[in-house]
Amino acid sequence: MNAAGTVVATAETTAALAPGERRQLAASLKVNSPALWHPEHPHLHTLRSEVIDANRVADTRETRIGIRRLAFTPDGLRINGERYFPMGYNRHQDHPYVGYALPDSQQYRDVKKLRDAGFTAYRCHYPPSPAFMDACDELGVLCIVASPGWQFWNPDPIFLERCIRNTREMVRRDRNRPSVILWEPDLNETPMPAEVIRTLHQAVHEEFPGDQCFTGGEQGYCDVDYARETKSGRPVLTREWGDSVDDWTSQQGRVRVARGWGELPLLTQAQNHAFKLNAIYEKNGAHDQCALNGIWLWAGIDAYRGYHQQPFLGGVLDLFRIPKFSYHFFRSQRPARPLPLPSGVESGPMVFIANYATPWSPTDVMVFSNCEEVRFSEGDRVIATQKPDPGYLLKHPPFTFCAGGAGTDKDTWFMNVEAGYHFKPAEYKAEGLIGGKVVATHTVKAPMVMTDIRLEPDLEGRPLVADGSDFIRVHAHITDKLGTTHPMANDLVTFSVEGAATLINEASFGANPVAAEAGIATALVRASAHPGKITVRATAPGLKSAEVVLESAPALGKSLH
Questions:
Q1: Are the C-beta atoms of 1 and 46 separated by less than 8 Å?
Q2: What integer pLDDT is reported at residue 561 of this predicted model?
């Protein structure tokens, strides 16, 4: 069946089975003029399989599939015969306070946020949650699925036995997904005997026969090579790029930046991502003509690591999934044309001012946009209308404007907007132009003194489900009276909740009250097993408190009581 529920193909086969007998049956279906699955239009079908015994339906299973064709080549990936360049990311699924225990809704939200940023592919060191894979199928994200393992090999035969079993189970679980383009059978960054990699490669192809099964690895025994440049004459992709470390003891680097460190570190991260991406294009061909079969950024989201006391801070989203400036750089690399993606997924033209407009902000203002031109203004004064900065091979280079500083007025910085004060805070505005017409706008107002809290539930199109385990993030923004989030606020925010939910934040591990980072503090609100109204409140000394009312949705399956 297609997305409208229309039956587009049927097939039937018969067999006589003795009691207890097991047999595999095969049938072929021909779909005429199917809606093909592609990252830019992820059309899905439902395959319904029925076992009929004496005119009675004895068993039924529905499998969601997509119809598409892949080809990895020495000069790039092709999907349905068309050249396509995946902009991918790596991601660990851990999360503050709950570790790896993410509910299905949060798996979806991770995919959605990074898809909004223009990332069209995923990879990590283990098979992700089925809910994460469901979201990739729905939102058009290509997946490398890897057998679990990282920097460890044991010559004991039982270790190999379990590696083979893990690999087979990995393929069996996800081989019908249109999002999966590559299987990674060798263990990540692990020197392994050649015969072992060949055995694992063979196991993948045994589990998924045909010409649409491909393996990838870094040691040269798979269908696709992992490398940073196209030198082998074989299909090549870059499984990890973007990270840099000064040494492996301190674990510091120019792209490893906490969101709360301020504008200059955030700009440094974004500029380094831009420079590194540009260097990839210089070696392998510019963006859509790049001979690599895709590149996967390390990494999409900040993550705890276990082997080091500091979290990995090289993500474009922080631990609470709040964007850094680099997130918007990658947004600017997506196509300017709107795409036929599922409802709620961002696409099309965008513009973003990577500046807070404070007295200490850079006076050379960087703007990210996928538009042809950007018109930049300070208040009512147009500073310039210009094309992207020269010298890049990027699909959409950044724009740099000499603004002179928007937040330098003493009035603007220190005063409240009260009765008797009749002034507007300084403001930057960027307008993205295509064909001379404004198609995207972003404004940044200079923040004034902190006075209020604004609560924003992070739903991303998914409700809070009353199953006893689902949770959402609620972000408390420290704002001035005009609602501008103050980028330097670090107030201690205390959260409370009433109704059909509880707080995961606890005082015992320093999570309530919690200090705002760059003006935002976050609470995790977990639904009870019964649907109903939920009131979340946030308070902080000297600030006007805030509350937001939510409603949890009934769970469709079993709940945790």
A1: yes
A2: 46
